[in-house]
């Protein structure tokens, strides 16, 4: 076996090192934007953990720096390369489900009292911390909503004010989407769900991990037959697809599958949903 020794570089050394082409920013949330911007300005491609910024000015600066430096900026929403999620989005975009009138998503978890102060650093609470993982596919699927109405509640038996039971309603001209996110559910992973309802049928991803996708159509459409059917999916491992795509796009000089405009839309909705 051959061993490869990877040197540990401090932040400034890594940014000045021309042999470093890509920087992955995985840190506390508050410095995400500053660290990502420093890496972009240093000429690096960047994978930036979610949420990328605490306000609109910072996300605008990140996207502008990526454009100006002609570098890739990849946001770290963990289901962007989830095969079931992408098949569901494809079915909606291709109108195989007909006219979409409702999308529902649930993104819950369970945390102890020791972690609540960390999640209470921002007014959006759980919506800002984890709700973006479902707002991301919803906004990329349906586009910018006409209205965003958040519901940020503190319903756990604690006295810390953490917004631990949250929801947001996105209104579109002929559809709406409802995303809920709480930190109060035991065994929550098994109940994480994204559902899309259309005039020709329904697509349900539940659980999201390990992925199980079911499609039920009134009439055949695309690759799917009429009736209820389970869609065969490969195993899913978080971030494998993200870093594979990032490497391929750098080597081949291609843009990422998620556009800067889509990233901008997702961040605007997340901030509004979090009252930030």
Molecular structure report:
The chain has eight helices and eleven strands. The chain is α/β, with parallel strands linked by helices and 276 residues long. Strands 5-6-7-4-8-9-10-11 form an eight-stranded mixed sheet, covered by helices on one side. The longest helix has 18 residues, at 125-142. The protein is globular. The mean pLDDT is 95.
Layout of SSEs?
Layout: H1 11-16, E1 22-25, H2 32-41, E2 45-49, H3 56-69, E3 73-76, H4 83-93, E4 100-106, H5 116-119, H6 125-142, E5 147-153, E6 165-172, E7 175-182, E8 193-198, E9 201-205, E10 213-217, E11 227-231, H7 240-252, H8 260-273
Parallel strand pairs: 1-2, 2-3, 4-7
Antiparallel strand pairs: 4-8, 5-6, 6-7, 8-9, 9-10, 10-11
Helix pairs in contact: 2-3, 3-8, 4-6, 6-8
How many helices in DSSP terms? 8
- Give a short account of the largest sheet: 8 strands, mixed
Number of strands: 11
What does the radius of gyration come to? 20 Å
| Secondary-structure-derived class | alpha/beta
Give the DSSP E fraction (strand runs of 2 or more residues): 15-25%
Largest beta sheet: what is the strand line-up? 5-6-7-4-8-9-10-11
Distance between the termini: 51 Å
Q: What is the helix fraction of residues, given as a range?
A: 25-40%
Instruction: Indicate the low-confidence ranges by residue numbers.
Output: none
Mean pLDDT: 95
Question: SSE order, as H and E?
Answer: HEHEHEHEHHEEEEEEEHH
Shape: globular
């Amino acid at each position: 076996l051959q061993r490869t020794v990877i040197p540990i570089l401090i932040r400034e050394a890594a940014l000045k090192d021309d042999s470093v082409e890509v920087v992955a920013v995985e840190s506390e949330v508050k410095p995400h934007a500053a660290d990502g911007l420093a890496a972009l300005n240093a000429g690096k491609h960047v994978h930036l953990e979610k949420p990328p910024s605490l306000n609109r000015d910072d996300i605008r600066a990140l996207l502008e720096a990526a454009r100006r430096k002609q570098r890739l900026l990849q946001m770290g929403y963990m289901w962007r390369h989830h095969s079931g999620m992408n098949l569901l989005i494809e079915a909606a975009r291709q109108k195989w489900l007909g006219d979409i009138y409702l999308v529902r998503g649930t993104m819950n978890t369970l945390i102890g009292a020791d972690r609540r102060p960390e999640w209470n650093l921002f007014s959006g609470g759980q919506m800002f911390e984890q709700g973006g993982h479902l707002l991301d596919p919803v906004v990329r699927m349906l586009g910018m909503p006409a209205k965003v109405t958040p519901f940020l509640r503190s319903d756990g038996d604690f006295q810390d004010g953490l917004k631990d039971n949250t929801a947001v309603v996105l209104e579109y001209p002929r559809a709406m989407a409802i995303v809920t996110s709480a930190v109060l559910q035991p065994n929550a992973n098994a109940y994480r769900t994204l559902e899309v309802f259309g005039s020709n049928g329904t697509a349900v991803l539940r659980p999201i991990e390990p992925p199980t996708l079911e499609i039920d159509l009134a009439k055949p459409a695309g690759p799917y037959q009429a009736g209820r059917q389970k869609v065969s999916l490969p195993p899913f491992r978080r971030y494998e697809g993200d870093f594979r795509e990032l490497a391929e796009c750098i080597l081949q000089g291609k843009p990422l599958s998620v556009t800067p405009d889509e990233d901008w839309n997702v961040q605007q909705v997340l901030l509004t949903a979090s009252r930030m």
